Amino acid sequence: MQASDLFDTALNPSSSPLLGIDLGTTNSLVGVVESGFPILLADEEGSRLTPSAVHYGRDGSVLVGAAALRRRSLEPSRTVTSVKRLIGRRGGEGDWQPPYDLRELGTSPVAVSAEVLKRLKAVAERALEQPVSRAVITVPAYFNDAQRNATKQAGELAGLTVERIVSEPTAAALAYGLDKLADRKKIAVYDLGGGTFDISVLEMREGVFQVLSTAGDTQLGGDDLDRALAAKIAPEGADPARFVEAAEAAKRRLSSEESVRIELPFYDGRNSLSVEVTRAELEKIIRPLVERTRAHCLRALSDAGVKAEELDEVVLVGGSTRIPFVRQHVAQLFGREPNTSQNPDEAVALGAVIQAGILSGSLRNVLLLDVTPLSLGIETFGGLMNVIIPRNTTIPCKAGEMFTNAVANQQDMLIRVLQGERELAKDNWELGRVVVHFPPGAKGSARVGVQFSIDANGILQVLARDTVTGQDTVLEIQNTAVDVDDERVEQMIAESVEHAFEDMNERIWTEAKLKAEELLPSVAAALEQFGDSVTAEERAVIEQAAAEVKVLLEAPVHDAASLKKANAALDDATQELAVRLVEKAMEESLARRGLV
Ligand code: AMP
Question: Helix or strand or coil: residue 190?
Answer without folding.
Answer: strand
